[in-house]
Design goal:
single chain, seven-stranded mixed β-sheet, four-stranded antiparallel β-sheet, globular
Length: 115
């Protein structure tokens, strides 16, 4: 299993970023996918998840109405569109897939929201 995140960076409050996660090594189109984040000194938290076909999504209360999650099963890629970013969104964002009892993670991509 390989998960490679990209798209992070420095953005001003109110700005937008789109994260991408390219997946390989497992049947992507039949796997639910998630995005997590971890801020300094805090535990890793679930941000958003999406069902295998993309019809079902779930979001943390802190990002509802601002973030959307989507996927392209033809490209084995899941996306996280982040709008109206706030300084408290600053964190390392990780792509995740659960296979059986094991969680797999990407290397993470840093998102910094600051003026």
């Amino acid at each position: 299993v390989q998960l490679v995140e990209s798209g992070g960076g420095l953005v001003q409050p109110g700005g937008s970023l789109r994260l991408s996660c390219a997946a390989s090594g497992f049947p992507f189109s039949t796997s639910a996918m998630s995005w997590y984040r971890q801020a300094p000194g805090k535990e890793r938290e679930l941000v958003a998840s999406i069902s295998s076909a993309g019809g079902g999504t779930n979001f943390a209360d802190s990002v509802k109405g601002r973030f959307t999650i989507s996927r392209d099963n033809a490209k084995n890629t899941v996306y996280l569109q982040m709008n109206s970013l706030k300084p408290e969104d600053t964190a390392v964002y990780y792509c995740n897939v659960r296979r059986g009892i094991r969680n797999y993670w990407g290397q993470g991509t840093q998102v910094t929201v600051s003026s």
